[in-house]
Write a sequence for this structure.
């Protein structure tokens, strides 16, 4: 298999993940639309490479201005040594403190991205957030997650503790391409598929908001004429729901 095969695998996986889970995707979009419409807060989190989905969807041309990433420095890809991210993701107590320190409250929405869904921090975040009355959505890999044991003290994996579960439908272990002469697979799909899914959720949520007479706070490119003025008006109106400025 080669790069062309990888593109085909990714394309088919995105299509299968979106179209095969119309109910869950619609549920996530409804939750997002309702949260924004009520001027409650939206948060997105992932550890290490999973955190790239949080980076993808905030302060983004064509995206909702009110989506707040939770960036915990020790679990981001610029941490050195990078192996520390894997170690800390397993430590109890960190997830609860991340929720507390980011002022996540009842009525908010928390979107969690974790491919294996087994590690302590995202599971703990989901459990603690739900206890506060926060709606939780996860993007995960069900086959992968069901094939491994939880590292959280409860024995639960992320898909078992979230309100809405969306499967990225990738391979167990994430890598999807076999190459002759190499025992390991290459070509992970979770980032590409995860980015497609969360953008699709945003787009579906925008359509729902428009159908309800709500003007979605969608950002324009700052490099387009009028973009700065458009975005400044959104930042002013939603100043209480934006925490990355």
């Amino acid at each position: 298999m080669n790069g062309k095969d990888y593109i085909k695998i990714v394309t088919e996986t995105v299509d299968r993940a979106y179209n095969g889970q119309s109910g869950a995707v619609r549920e996530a979009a409804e939750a997002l639309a309702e949260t924004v419409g009520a001027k409650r807060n939206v948060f997105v989190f992932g550890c290490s490479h999973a955190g790239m989905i949080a980076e993808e969807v905030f302060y983004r041309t064509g995206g909702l201005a009110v989506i707040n990433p939770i960036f915990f420095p020790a679990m981001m890809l610029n941490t050195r040594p990078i192996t520390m991210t894997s170690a800390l993701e397993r430590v109890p107590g960190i997830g609860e403190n991340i929720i507390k320190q980011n002022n996540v409250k009842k009525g908010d929405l928390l979107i969690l991205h974790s491919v294996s869904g087994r590690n302590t921090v995202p599971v703990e975040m989901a459990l603690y957030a739900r206890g506060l009355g926060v709606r939780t959505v996860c993007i995960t890999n069900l086959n992968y997650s069901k094939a491994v044991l939880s590292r959280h003290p409860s024995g639960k994996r992320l898909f078992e503790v979230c309100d809405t579960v969306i499967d990225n439908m990738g391979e167990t272990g994430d890598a999807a391409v076999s190459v002759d002469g190499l025992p390991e697979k290459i070509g992970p799909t979770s980032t590409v598929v995860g980015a497609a899914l969360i953008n699709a959720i945003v787009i579906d949520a925008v359509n729902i908001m428009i159908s309800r007479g709500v003007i979605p706070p969608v950002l324009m490119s700052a490099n387009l004429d009028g973009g700065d003025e458009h975005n400044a008006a959104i930042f002013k109106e939603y100043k209480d729901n934006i925490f990355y400025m």
